[in-house]
Structures are given as C-alpha cells and as structure tokens.
Amino acid sequence: MPKSDLVNQMDEIQAKLRPLLKDEGYRVRGRTFNRTTHDGLTQVLNFQMGSFDPPGTTYIPGLRENLYGKFTVNLVQKIYGPSSEMQNDDGDNATGSVDPIFKTSIHVKPITNLDLGYQATKEIKLNVGAINLFNEYPNQVNSTVLAHERAADDNAAVQIYPSFSPFGINGGYYYAKATYSF
Q: Where are the domains of the chain?
C-alpha cells in the first residue's frame, strides 16, 4: 500500500531531525528517539500523527459518540536544580565565636505538572490537575544553621525549607476548575 502524503511529510521531518538527534546521543527505533542522561534520566521523543476520524468509523446514534477534540491532557516534566545558598546564623552568634558560613543545597528535582481537560459543551470546559503532582519538597535548610537559630531562640528557625527553592516550598498544588466561554 502506498504511503499517504501526511506519512511522507512526517518521514521528511523525521529524516531532517534524525542526524541532529543522533549527534545529541539519541537512539532511534521507528518514530521514537531516546537517550539516557549522565544522571540516569531517560529522555524520550516520539513523533505521532492521527486522522480526525479513522477510515471505516461507524457511528451508531446514542451508542458511540465521537469524542475527538473533547479531551486534553497536558503533562509537563520540569527538572530543577541543583541550587545552593551560603548563609550564616542570622547574626545571633549563638556559638559565641565569629559567625561561620554554612551552605544549604537543593539537589536536582523533577517536578511533574498534569492537567486533564474535558470540553463538556461549546461554552464549558472542565479541568482537574496538579502542579507538583508528586508533592516534592526541596531539601531542608542546613541543619547546623537551624540548630544555631534554635539555640538563640530566633524566629528564623521556623523556616525549615530554603526560600531560594526554584520550585517553591509548599509541595503539591491540586485544582479543579470550570471555564465558561461566551
């Protein structure tokens, strides 16, 4: 069976990208490219295409509704870090010596965001989702700094997560929303 024009166009796009992706360490199998990074993360690129209604689709009123275009899925994987900050014990000098400097570090963290949408009517769209789906937190503030702050009865000791965290300190955020367009 001869290839369709769309398949040929996808083949051309993939042929142009293949050498660039191979230079970046990707392996290819069919329309999927993948590589493993130095820290063990697997990155996958997949090329897909689909028709609005597959040939041969049969509609039986009341039994099978065409749901094409009614659902959306947005999955985002962000990689943050590493980051760090140098700090002292807030000038309280609880140790009784010259204020030492301490390093607080946040390791590399993947953060997953997910949004699922359903177009209920032309005007109404419903979504549920999560920002930081797996409820990840940054590493805590350096324990020595916290111990110094607590020894000095300093209010700074209540902050156990570093404020410089690139993805926040509040963990997961989950939501449901309805949108009305007029």
A: 1-50, 54-180
- Comparing C-alpha atoms, which of 45, 14, 27 is closest to residue 3? 14
Task: Give the tens place of pLDDT for each residue, 67-94.
Answer: 656 888 888 888 887 888 888 765 565 5
Rounded Cα distance between 42 and 14, Å, is 20
Residue 40: C-alpha distances to residues 1, 17, 33, 72, 81 (Å): 41, 24, 16, 30, 15
- pLDDT bucket at 134, cuts 50 / 70 / 90: very high
What is the pTM for the complete model shown?
Answer: 0.59
pLDDT at res. 136: 93
